Amino acid sequence: MKFATLILAATCLIYSVDAAGKIVDLTNFHDKHYQMPIELEVGDRFEIKIRENPTTGYKWLQLDQELEKHGLQDVIVLSESRYKSDDNPRGASGVGGTRFLEFTALKPGLGDLHLIMARSWELETILDITEELDSYVSKLIPVRVSK
Length: 147
What we know:
Elements: H1 2-14, E1 15-18, E2 21-25, E3 38-41, E4 45-52, E5 58-62, H2 64-69, E6 76-85, E7 97-105, E8 109-119, H3 123-129, E9 138-146
Parallel strand pairs: 2-4, 3-9
Antiparallel strand pairs: 1-2, 4-7, 5-8, 6-7, 8-9
């Protein structure tokens, strides 16, 4: 019973709901594949929180061709991407923070949301070189949208 309670508590920390919609907190999630599907209805929004340090040039990106490849083209759309820097009382350079990616469910469907961490100016080269982006730092998040 204690084990089941621990798993439930851990799940609640990663996937919660607030007034704005569902929040998937990946700030301390280090696995590539997120196992729990994000369950949505058409019109719902969800937000992904994930650690990032854009001063390195790398940032979390969602690519349209990956939505198509993983079955989510026209099912969800990235509606907002914003970044919040960590507190930096000493004013140091290169401090990381959190990327917030907000998606909206447009129509019923099922697939995997694939996020990659890359430098935007290298994307064309990356896509030309490899068919599979799994070799790059990435996250795969299952999404299911119902009516």
